[in-house]
Amino acid sequence: MFTWQRCAALGTDLLFLAAITNALANFVIGGAAAHSYWVLLMFVFSFWLIRSGMQVLFGGSLGQLMTKVRIHKPLSRTQALLRNSWILLYTIPTIGPWLTVAVIAVLFGAVLIDPDRRGLHDRVAGTEVFLANK
């Protein structure tokens, strides 16, 4: 149905927030420390909070709005934070990135095989997404 739009939305969000985090880290921390664990934490938590906040306020993140993927009903803050909590796995030292990739594969795998095209993160948070016509 619209799986590629969901992948494109996630990719757009990751690139957008990586650019913001990189610029902020270079400004606040300085170029020498731009590859520190603090920058990783800054990226992960800004991704989690900004993406969740946009979903609550606008019905979708920047990437979702650009690809016309919308969340069916208004989200509470708790639902949005829960729906995006998979990104927090990335902060686990050493195995975090691998674990995050595995979880993304499971989430999108569920989208592919579910008749309603709902991922596990949608089911856990009680949400549903659709493709907007406009």
Automatic annotation (TrEMBL):
Domain of life, source organism: Bacteria
Keyword Acyltransferase: no
Main location: membrane
Keyword Membrane: yes
InterPro entries, per the entry: RDD (IPR010432)
Membrane topology: Multi-pass membrane protein
Keyword tags: Membrane, Transmembrane, Transmembrane helix
Organism per entry: Corynebacterium breve
Compartments where found: Membrane
Domain RDD: 3-126
Segments passing through the bilayer: 35-66, 87-113
Protein name per Swiss-Prot or TrEMBL: RDD family protein
